[in-house]
Amino acid sequence: MLAVCLAIAGVYAVIAYAVQQRAPEIGLRIALGASRRSVLRLVLGQGLMLTAIGLGMGLAAAVGMTRILSSVLFQVQPFDTPTYLGVTIVLIAMTLLAGYVPARRAMAVDPMKVLKAD
Fold first, then answer.
1. Which of 12, 51, 78, 113 could disulfide-pair with 95, CB 3.0 to 4.6 Å?
2. Where are the domains of the chain?
3. Is residue 112 within 8 Å of residue 18, measured between CB atoms?
């Protein structure tokens, strides 16, 4: 549980930092007519893309390591599909939860303030 909380905090920090860095771009998108929903999709999509890359690498490493460790671990199958599926679902849900707050903040960006800041 502690690892999941730390992962949520890390994902939140990365997405919040990316939103802060992209505030002028997001403000310009909103000024040019982008809907709040498309900004939400943009931010959450960025977080999900990072999660997909991490999941792909992590699942590949997990499958490789279970083959190596299968001689040491007893009654553990190398391809435990429910575990892999459960971890994938938890990580995707965690990413959506952690990315929601920065996405809401990005949707509330005032285009005039952001454009005047430059």
1. 51
2. 13-117
3. no
